[in-house]
Amino acid sequence: MSQNSQSGNSPEQKNSLLTQPINKLFMQMAMPMVIGMIINGLYNLVDAFFVSRFIGSSAMAAVSIVFPLQMIIIALATTISNGASILVSQYLGANRLVKVSCVIVAAFRLIAVFSVFIAIMPIVFNQHLLRILNVPSALQTTVNDYFMPLALGSILIFILSLLTDLLRAQGRMNALFVGVLVSAIANVILDWLFIVVFNWGVSGAAVATLSGQFIGCIIGVFYFTQQMSLRKILTQSGLFDMEIVRKIITLGIPVLLQYVGAALIIGLVNGLIAASIDDSSAQWLSAYGLIGRFNIFIILPLIAMTNASQTIISFNYGGGNNERVKQALIHGIKANIKYLSIMASMLLIIPELLLSGFTTDALVIETGAKIARMMFILLPLAGISSITIAYFQGVGRAKQAMMLTMAKVYILIVPLLLTINYTLGYTKLWYAFPVADIATVALASYLFWQLRKNEVKLTVQGEC
User: Residue 86: which of 395, 399, 401 has the closest Cα?
Assistant: First the structure.
């Protein structure tokens, strides 16, 4: 096998990442991921549909209660896969093939450690977890029936996440799309088979999810091994490289913080509304839940476009092509702003029409429209901060990426929510988001300016 083949990129693929016009390359990489992200979002809704329609509301309540634990598993999986994919892109761009092998092996060994820990947790600490989640006694058996299979099979979640991100790092978007699509379709079919036909209850939903991911893993391994030899990877990687492990985790931490922050914000907003003695708090909770669904569908394509930009940035940074890194950054910002401007326009102009597709409750529709017009008024600014975080990760500036991520969620949004709730009441909570968007863009601009200034200083000193 040739050296290029070992690296996971054919000469044509590698050349396109380093030479193809940025706008064309961006579209080729982003569109399959955008479609894949939307499919992922849709089959999560399908899961909810089968559970609530064919098992019952109590089963749906149990699945909802355990969702924070699922988010933690997904967050850990994404932390490893995102950090590893950034390093792989950088090393492929620099043609450091042995380092690519080290990253892949280190990532899989990290997966083994985390998945064993997660599998043990619900067995050893079952009662502790149920208490932390505040699960009612009537739902504890159902919660265990759903979460236990997911915990035991969590290794599939980790592997599928890593394989898809490695394919993305190599620029193999068609392979990534096929894996996501087939996995999603399999999940829908198996939901129907296990829940409706076999009547397995919530365990059937969990097994369907894991089975779909297993099929996705098989497809991912097939495409991955077409251009990368597992034997070569294992022989080149050497011992467990703790420096590589540190880099993977460090680069992936901003993603972990984003997931944890999202869960924290959702929980905090729900808690502040629920704590109110206002008779209308129930409709605000319902409306916020619907707006949250729209927000998820907005975020998923945004993540896809940001990841596409990050791959181009990482690869060309590794290849020493700073001009293309700059072009990818600018193009990514423009694409994100255009997309979010369209989404914001719809949510600001016709939120009632959008919400009416999900509910016939006039009060909930009216309340949801109020939330949308507060929450999304400056939505396009979020595209700038997201691509800036991806840029910092792509050029190995994990500290700046982490700082920007933590600032938006933990330093800005959370304190703003608490302050607004105390001063203006829970009906104005959503003004925290546009205020945080403005402050985050200001901080991103400052960090980027500082980085560029330091690079200029180093260049001048080197010339002297």
Answer: 395
CA distances to 76, 90, 169, 246, 396 from 99, rounded to whole Å, are: 23, 10, 14, 14, 15
Distance CA 84, CA 106 (A): 9
Burial class (CB in 10 A: 0-12, 13-18, 19+), 310: buried
CB 220 within 8 A of CB 207: no
pLDDT digits (tens, 9 = 90+) for 243-276: 888 888 887 887 787 777 877 787 677 777 767 7
CA dihedral 204, 264, 386, 82 (to 10 degrees): -50
What is the per-residue burial (b if ≥16 Cβ within 10 Å, else e) of 86-118? bbbbbbbbeebbebbbbbbbbbbebbeebbeeb
What sign has the CA pseudo-torsion 52, 57, 58, 61?
Answer: positive
Contact 256, 35 (CB under 8 A): no
CB 210 within 8 Å of CB 191: no
Handedness of CA 79, 82, 86, 91 (dihedral sign): positive
Residue environment code for 26-41, b if the CB has 16+ CB neighbours within 10 A, otherwise e: bbebbbbbbbbbbbbb
Whether 269 contacts 417, CB under 8 Å: yes
295 and 41 in contact (C-beta within 8 Å)? no
Q: What is the C-alpha to C-alpha distance for residues 434 and 440, in angstroms, rounded to an integer?
A: 10
Q: Kindly state the greatest CA–CA separation across the chain.
A: 75
- Tell me if residue 357 falls in helix, strand or coil: coil
The pair of structure tokens assigned to 42 is 């849709």
> CA–CA separation, 166 vs 182, rounded Å?
18
Rg (CA), the chain: 23
CA–CA distance from 242 to each of 248, 356, 404 (Å)?
10, 53, 26
User: 456 to each of 323, 451, 453, 462, how far by Cα in Å?
Assistant: 14, 9, 5, 10
pLDDT < 50 stretches in the chain:
1-13, 456, 458-464
Cβ atoms within 10 Å, residue 330: 13
Question: CA 94 to CA 321: how far, in whole Å?
Answer: 10
Which tokens go with 366?
């009216």
What's the pTM?
0.68
> What count of other Cβ atoms lies within 10 Å of the Cβ of residue 382?
24
